User: Fold this.
Amino acid sequence: MDAIQCMLTRKSVKKYKPDMVPKELLEQIIEAGLNAPSGLNKQSPIILAVTDRQVRDELSKLNAGKDPFFRSDPFYGAPVVLVVLADKSVPTYLYDGPLVMENLQLAAHALGLGACWIHRAKETFEQPEGKAILEKLGLQGEYEGIGNCIVGYADIDPEKKPRKENRVFWIE
Amino acid sequence: MDAIQCMLTRKSVKKYKPDMVPKELLEQIIEAGLNAPSGLNKQSPIILAVTDRQVRDELSKLNAGKDPFFRSDPFYGAPVVLVVLADKSVPTYLYDGPLVMENLQLAAHALGLGACWIHRAKETFEQPEGKAILEKLGLQGEYEGIGNCIVGYADIDPEKKPRKENRVFWIE
Assistant:
């Protein structure tokens, strides 16, 4: 898919088929994410590629929190969650992480998959259960959750939302 | 250019020819930027498209600050600066802004142009001279600088920097 077209037609998909995405496609998406730029090329963001159902469901539960009014699965049924975290000790980490998230979303769309940014990754990994997931992977201390990029086969074709007016100011 | 290839081959360009970029190309780049996703689709980020030499030079000067040891032009000679700012009153503004920045950089690369994220947009618009630029445009109060996307014709073909190891953790 053409790069500009990809950016213009990407939509946030909020309903997924349960089918698992082949690992080969996920690897392409992740590679695109890793190639995002970063401040002083520090490449501080990392990606947890979660396809294990139990961990995916645990992350969903941690994301929803204790509010019983919150929707039951914040990941909208998507079978894959690519969690981006970034090293807080790098001054630009909060800018670097979202760039990876954007590449993940664009690459998923380019490959015919649906994707969506789900917030509250920060809160997830501040909880003991979230920290335990990182510790199991040997990731300690400095990582802050940036975003969850859910990925799967879209079970809906959402409308592209119009862009708001007055967001560009020319000084020419 | 293919979207995935675009993400894999994009590089941060740090030397530019002085030639101005046609407005029609800048408009395509900006449109790609505006189409980045945003939290709850609030579309809080805005773009200042600066091609005016005087304002471009002023932004460069404000960016460099008062440190005489700082390089003379932090914009590396690029004739265009697309400044992304985002509305601080939107809770996700710090995540939304960088997504626009990534689309700008990718779109420039897809169109055969060079681009690079230059930091210190936040600091620029905290200074009285930066605030004055926003006030002149009728933009008051809540906008924080996210990044400067410099754009122009590359005068160098930088090597693609290798990706660091151990940034992907599979939970499958």
